[in-house]
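Recall that a protein's primary structure is simply its ordered list of amino acids. Everything else, from secondary elements to tertiary packing, is in principle encoded there. The following example makes that idea concrete.
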Amino acid sequence: MNQPILHTQDLQIGYKNAIASNVNLSLQPGKLVALIGANGIGKSTLLRTLTKIQPPISGDVYLGGKPISDYSSAERARQFSIVLTEKLPPSNLTAWELVALGRQPYTDWIGKLSDVDRQQITQAMALTQVTDLADKRHFTLSDGQLQKVSIARALAQDTPLIVLDEPTTHLDLVHKVSLLRLLKKLTLETQKCVLFSTHDIDLALELSDEMIVMSPQKTIQAAPSQLISDGVFDTIFKDEHIVFDVGKGKFIFRNL
Protein backbone atom coordinates (compact mmCIF):
# COMPACT_ATOMS: atom_id res chain seq x y z
CA MET A 1 0.00 0.00 0.00
CA ASN A 2 1.20 3.51 -0.79
CA GLN A 3 2.12 6.05 1.84
CA PRO A 4 -1.20 7.63 2.87
CA ILE A 5 -1.70 11.31 2.17
CA LEU A 6 -3.34 11.68 5.56
CA HIS A 7 -4.02 9.27 8.38
CA THR A 8 -5.24 9.44 11.96
CA GLN A 9 -4.34 7.56 15.10
CA ASP A 10 -6.86 7.09 17.91
CA LEU A 11 -8.46 10.42 17.10
CA GLN A 12 -11.11 11.78 19.42
CA ILE A 13 -13.16 14.69 18.11
CA GLY A 14 -15.67 17.12 19.55
CA TYR A 15 -15.80 20.32 21.52
CA LYS A 16 -16.01 19.99 25.30
CA ASN A 17 -17.45 16.51 24.95
CA ALA A 18 -16.33 13.79 22.56
CA ILE A 19 -18.70 12.96 19.71
CA ALA A 20 -16.46 10.28 18.15
CA SER A 21 -13.50 8.34 19.53
CA ASN A 22 -10.87 5.88 18.30
CA VAL A 23 -11.11 7.24 14.77
CA ASN A 24 -8.41 5.60 12.64
CA LEU A 25 -8.52 6.61 8.99
CA SER A 26 -6.16 6.40 6.01
CA LEU A 27 -6.60 8.47 2.85
CA GLN A 28 -4.75 7.07 -0.15
CA PRO A 29 -3.88 8.68 -3.52
CA GLY A 30 -6.39 8.19 -6.34
CA LYS A 31 -9.34 7.37 -4.05
CA LEU A 32 -12.80 8.90 -3.90
CA VAL A 33 -13.87 8.61 -0.26
CA ALA A 34 -17.37 9.42 0.96
CA LEU A 35 -18.06 10.37 4.59
CA ILE A 36 -21.60 9.48 5.65
CA GLY A 37 -23.72 9.36 8.78
CA ALA A 38 -26.94 10.69 10.26
CA ASN A 39 -27.52 14.40 10.82
CA GLY A 40 -25.59 15.72 13.81
CA ILE A 41 -23.30 12.69 14.04
CA GLY A 42 -20.17 14.84 13.59
CA LYS A 43 -19.22 14.68 9.90
CA SER A 44 -18.38 18.39 9.62
CA THR A 45 -16.53 18.26 12.95
CA LEU A 46 -14.42 15.37 11.65
CA LEU A 47 -13.56 17.25 8.44
CA ARG A 48 -12.70 20.38 10.42
CA THR A 49 -10.44 18.33 12.71
CA LEU A 50 -8.69 16.54 9.84
CA THR A 51 -7.88 19.92 8.24
CA LYS A 52 -6.76 21.58 11.51
CA ILE A 53 -9.58 24.11 11.51
CA GLN A 54 -10.53 22.60 14.85
CA PRO A 55 -8.22 20.85 17.34
CA PRO A 56 -8.86 17.24 18.37
CA ILE A 57 -9.68 16.35 21.95
CA SER A 58 -6.99 13.70 21.77
CA GLY A 59 -5.16 11.53 19.24
CA ASP A 60 -3.21 12.56 16.18
CA VAL A 61 -3.61 13.58 12.55
CA TYR A 62 -0.66 12.85 10.26
CA LEU A 63 -0.12 14.56 6.92
CA GLY A 64 2.41 12.91 4.64
CA GLY A 65 3.67 10.90 7.59
CA LYS A 66 4.27 13.97 9.83
CA PRO A 67 2.03 15.39 12.55
CA ILE A 68 -0.20 18.01 10.97
CA SER A 69 0.86 20.44 13.72
CA ASP A 70 4.39 20.40 12.26
CA TYR A 71 3.16 22.25 9.17
CA SER A 72 2.70 25.99 8.89
CA SER A 73 -0.60 27.23 7.46
CA ALA A 74 1.19 28.00 4.17
CA GLU A 75 2.63 24.48 4.02
CA ARG A 76 -0.78 22.93 4.76
CA ALA A 77 -2.26 24.96 1.88
CA ARG A 78 0.04 23.03 -0.46
CA GLN A 79 -1.04 19.68 0.98
CA PHE A 80 -4.84 19.93 1.00
CA SER A 81 -7.56 22.21 -0.32
CA ILE A 82 -11.00 22.65 1.23
CA VAL A 83 -14.45 23.42 -0.16
CA LEU A 84 -16.83 24.12 2.73
CA THR A 85 -20.62 24.38 2.71
CA GLU A 86 -20.48 28.12 3.38
CA LYS A 87 -20.86 30.03 0.13
CA LEU A 88 -18.43 32.73 -0.83
CA PRO A 89 -20.01 36.18 -0.44
CA PRO A 90 -21.29 37.48 -3.81
CA SER A 91 -18.65 39.49 -5.64
CA ASN A 92 -17.85 40.99 -9.00
CA LEU A 93 -15.05 38.48 -9.59
CA THR A 94 -15.20 36.35 -12.72
CA ALA A 95 -15.19 32.56 -12.55
CA TRP A 96 -11.60 32.62 -13.83
CA GLU A 97 -10.58 34.97 -11.01
CA LEU A 98 -12.32 32.76 -8.43
CA VAL A 99 -10.37 29.73 -9.66
CA ALA A 100 -7.17 31.80 -9.64
CA LEU A 101 -7.58 32.25 -5.87
CA GLY A 102 -6.46 28.64 -5.58
CA ARG A 103 -2.95 29.68 -6.63
CA GLN A 104 -2.41 31.98 -3.64
CA PRO A 105 -0.16 29.47 -1.79
CA TYR A 106 2.28 29.66 -4.73
CA THR A 107 2.28 33.31 -5.80
CA ASP A 108 4.75 35.98 -4.70
CA TRP A 109 3.94 38.62 -2.09
CA ILE A 110 2.06 40.80 -4.59
CA GLY A 111 0.05 37.84 -5.89
CA LYS A 112 1.42 37.92 -9.42
CA LEU A 113 0.50 34.84 -11.45
CA SER A 114 3.26 33.01 -13.31
CA ASP A 115 2.86 31.02 -16.50
CA VAL A 116 2.73 27.87 -14.38
CA ASP A 117 -0.08 29.37 -12.28
CA ARG A 118 -2.08 30.24 -15.38
CA GLN A 119 -1.53 26.77 -16.77
CA GLN A 120 -2.85 25.21 -13.55
CA ILE A 121 -5.92 27.46 -13.65
CA THR A 122 -6.64 26.60 -17.28
CA GLN A 123 -6.19 22.88 -16.64
CA ALA A 124 -8.40 22.94 -13.53
CA MET A 125 -11.21 24.69 -15.41
CA ALA A 126 -10.93 22.23 -18.29
CA LEU A 127 -11.04 19.20 -15.97
CA THR A 128 -14.14 20.54 -14.19
CA GLN A 129 -15.77 21.59 -17.48
CA VAL A 130 -16.20 25.26 -16.54
CA THR A 131 -13.98 26.84 -19.20
CA ASP A 132 -17.05 28.38 -20.84
CA LEU A 133 -17.82 30.18 -17.57
CA ALA A 134 -14.43 31.92 -17.38
CA ASP A 135 -15.76 35.45 -18.03
CA LYS A 136 -19.03 35.13 -16.14
CA ARG A 137 -19.34 37.12 -12.92
CA HIS A 138 -19.67 35.35 -9.59
CA PHE A 139 -23.15 36.72 -8.89
CA THR A 140 -24.51 35.35 -12.20
CA LEU A 141 -23.50 31.73 -11.54
CA SER A 142 -26.06 29.10 -10.53
CA ASP A 143 -25.48 26.94 -7.45
CA GLY A 144 -24.33 24.05 -9.65
CA GLN A 145 -21.97 26.25 -11.65
CA LEU A 146 -20.54 27.85 -8.53
CA GLN A 147 -19.96 24.44 -6.96
CA LYS A 148 -17.96 23.32 -9.99
CA VAL A 149 -15.99 26.58 -9.99
CA SER A 150 -15.21 26.05 -6.29
CA ILE A 151 -13.92 22.56 -7.07
CA ALA A 152 -11.86 24.01 -9.93
CA ARG A 153 -10.35 26.47 -7.43
CA ALA A 154 -9.45 23.59 -5.11
CA LEU A 155 -7.99 21.67 -8.05
CA ALA A 156 -5.93 24.69 -9.15
CA GLN A 157 -4.43 24.68 -5.66
CA ASP A 158 -2.74 21.45 -6.82
CA THR A 159 -2.84 19.56 -3.53
CA PRO A 160 -2.71 15.78 -3.03
CA LEU A 161 -5.93 15.93 -1.01
CA ILE A 162 -9.20 17.77 -1.70
CA VAL A 163 -11.77 17.92 1.12
CA LEU A 164 -15.40 18.87 0.40
CA ASP A 165 -18.14 19.34 2.98
CA GLU A 166 -21.51 18.33 1.47
CA PRO A 167 -20.75 19.39 -2.14
CA THR A 168 -24.14 18.15 -3.44
CA THR A 169 -26.25 20.29 -1.10
CA HIS A 170 -28.85 22.42 -2.97
CA LEU A 171 -28.30 20.51 -6.23
CA ASP A 172 -30.99 18.56 -8.05
CA LEU A 173 -30.51 14.87 -8.80
CA VAL A 174 -29.05 15.41 -12.28
CA HIS A 175 -26.45 17.85 -10.99
CA LYS A 176 -25.67 15.65 -7.97
CA VAL A 177 -24.88 12.72 -10.24
CA SER A 178 -22.87 14.95 -12.56
CA LEU A 179 -20.82 16.38 -9.70
CA LEU A 180 -20.01 13.02 -8.12
CA ARG A 181 -19.06 11.55 -11.50
CA LEU A 182 -16.77 14.55 -11.95
CA LEU A 183 -15.10 13.90 -8.58
CA LYS A 184 -14.61 10.25 -9.52
CA LYS A 185 -13.09 11.31 -12.86
CA LEU A 186 -10.70 13.70 -11.09
CA THR A 187 -9.35 10.99 -8.78
CA LEU A 188 -8.70 8.72 -11.75
CA GLU A 189 -7.05 11.38 -13.92
CA THR A 190 -5.05 13.25 -11.28
CA GLN A 191 -4.47 10.53 -8.64
CA LYS A 192 -5.51 13.01 -5.97
CA CYS A 193 -7.58 11.81 -3.05
CA VAL A 194 -11.02 13.41 -2.76
CA LEU A 195 -12.80 13.18 0.58
CA PHE A 196 -16.39 14.44 0.66
CA SER A 197 -19.22 14.32 3.17
CA THR A 198 -22.69 13.64 1.84
CA HIS A 199 -26.27 12.70 2.67
CA ASP A 200 -26.65 11.11 -0.78
CA ILE A 201 -25.73 7.66 0.45
CA ASP A 202 -27.06 5.69 -2.52
CA LEU A 203 -25.00 7.77 -4.95
CA ALA A 204 -21.95 7.46 -2.73
CA LEU A 205 -22.37 3.68 -2.71
CA GLU A 206 -22.37 3.66 -6.51
CA LEU A 207 -19.37 5.91 -7.12
CA SER A 208 -17.05 5.87 -4.10
CA ASP A 209 -13.94 3.73 -3.81
CA GLU A 210 -14.19 3.80 -0.03
CA MET A 211 -16.62 5.11 2.55
CA ILE A 212 -16.21 6.37 6.09
CA VAL A 213 -19.33 5.56 8.11
CA MET A 214 -19.95 7.44 11.35
CA SER A 215 -22.42 5.90 13.79
CA PRO A 216 -22.99 6.45 17.50
CA GLN A 217 -20.95 3.31 18.21
CA LYS A 218 -17.90 3.79 16.00
CA THR A 219 -16.37 5.19 12.82
CA ILE A 220 -15.43 2.66 10.13
CA GLN A 221 -13.61 3.02 6.80
CA ALA A 222 -13.80 0.36 4.08
CA ALA A 223 -14.89 -0.34 0.51
CA PRO A 224 -18.69 -0.16 -0.01
CA SER A 225 -18.90 -3.91 -0.72
CA GLN A 226 -17.13 -4.71 2.55
CA LEU A 227 -19.37 -2.36 4.52
CA ILE A 228 -22.46 -3.98 2.99
CA SER A 229 -21.30 -7.52 3.79
CA ASP A 230 -20.46 -6.47 7.37
CA GLY A 231 -23.94 -5.00 7.90
CA VAL A 232 -22.52 -1.59 8.78
CA PHE A 233 -25.31 0.38 7.10
CA ASP A 234 -27.86 -1.04 9.52
CA THR A 235 -26.22 1.05 12.28
CA ILE A 236 -26.65 4.50 10.69
CA PHE A 237 -30.31 5.35 11.28
CA LYS A 238 -32.30 4.67 14.44
CA ASP A 239 -35.58 4.25 12.59
CA GLU A 240 -37.31 0.92 12.04
CA HIS A 241 -38.86 2.26 8.83
CA ILE A 242 -35.48 2.86 7.15
CA VAL A 243 -33.59 -0.34 6.41
CA PHE A 244 -30.70 -1.30 4.17
CA ASP A 245 -31.57 -3.90 1.54
CA VAL A 246 -28.39 -5.93 0.94
CA GLY A 247 -29.73 -7.46 -2.25
CA LYS A 248 -30.55 -4.10 -3.82
CA GLY A 249 -27.52 -2.36 -2.24
CA LYS A 250 -29.63 0.62 -1.15
CA PHE A 251 -31.83 1.96 1.62
CA ILE A 252 -35.53 1.28 1.40
CA PHE A 253 -38.57 2.44 3.36
CA ARG A 254 -40.65 -0.20 5.15
CA ASN A 255 -44.15 -0.11 6.65
CA LEU A 256 -44.68 3.60 6.18
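The helical segments are 43-50, 73-76, 95-100, 115-127, 143-156, 173-190, 201-207, 224-229. The chain has two domains: 1-79+161-168+192-256, 86-158.
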